[in-house]
Amino acid sequence: MLKLLPFLFLTCLSFVGKSQINMVVKEDGFLFMEGKDSLFFYQKSPKDKDGEYSRCNYIHPLYGADNSRLTEDFPADHLHHRGIFWAWHQILIDNNSVADGWELKNFQQKVTDIEFRLQKGIGYLNTTVDWISPLWKDGSEPYLQEKTNITIYPKAGNYRRLDFEIRLNSLTDDLSIGGSDDEKGYSGFSIRLKLPEDVSFSGENGLVEPTNAAVVAGNSMKIDGSFLNDGKKGGVVMLSNPQNPEPSGSWIIRKKASMQNAAYPGRQPVAIAFDEPLVLKYSLLVYHGDMSEKQIKKAMK
Fold first, then answer.
1. pTM of the model
2. Closest C-alpha to 42, from 161, 99, 166, 126
3. For residues 226 and 283, is the Cβ–Cβ distance under 8 A?
């Protein structure tokens, strides 16, 4: 059951028409806005394509500064890709596979709690999500509880900032998660963008070219190009918090028909202790025009 919905709805109505972060309740999720500008939509209810690739608990669309849609959902080349998402190919209990959260195989999520609040002009979205598999206790009990906090900052200059804290709590012994079992190691926090022809990538030390496997480029990845309406320039900066476990500076980047991935942990699975959650923190800066490395660092202070 989703708690606090009546309260949230009244809170949202009280801010409509003002340049503050507000949440609009929709049938299958929540639209976040700042004044008249759309920021993003959080998909709460399961969504599928022709009965397949069912997913929830992700963001799509993510909007640019001119209300352009920056993300894709169900792209023809990878139907399992979905806006801004965090997922792992290998989900293992006692070294046995129970699900593939990346490709949505034997993987179900149930959003059990939603809370939204405003404090000093900043929006805070807190979600609780159960992970369930038909291969674990016939789907009768969750094996993991996810608690994700998304912090939504008001616009500052030519950018907006979103912070993500993803807390994975194991509900059983001997649970581990990992990326694709190949040299790519797709895993973790990702964004499926509508990529323009002139897309380019910059890490902390300058321009980076995509390779088949992950590249090491520091804790930030700027994705720049003609992302906005009418071919206007803009982009997204993905940031992996330095507090994240290693590897925290590995990136899988693609110029065409794919997502951009802050790869953790990569190919080799990591255990999630029963009494100690795995905490991962990321940020997004959504900008128009350009954003220098100096601006990025200032924005993250």
1. 0.94
2. 126
3. no
* For the chain, domain boundaries: 77-299
Measured CA to CA, the distance from residue 236 to residue 290 in angstroms comes to: 10
3-class DSSP assignment, residue 231: helix
166-181 residue pLDDT tens: 999 999 999 999 999 9
First to last CA, the chain: 37
- pLDDT, tens digit (0-9, with 9 covering 90-100), for 255-266: 999 999 999 999
Mark 49-67 as b/e (b = at least 16 C-beta within 10 Å).
eeeebebbbbbbbbbbbee
pLDDT along the chain (301 residues), means of 10: 41 51 97 96 98 98 94 98 98 98 98 97 97 98 98 97 98 97 97 98 96 97 97 97 96 97 98 96 98 96 88
Q: Where are the beta strands (DSSP E) in 194-267?
A: 200-203, 206-208, 215-216, 220-225, 234-240, 250-252, 260-263
Highest CATH level, class, for 77-299: mainly beta
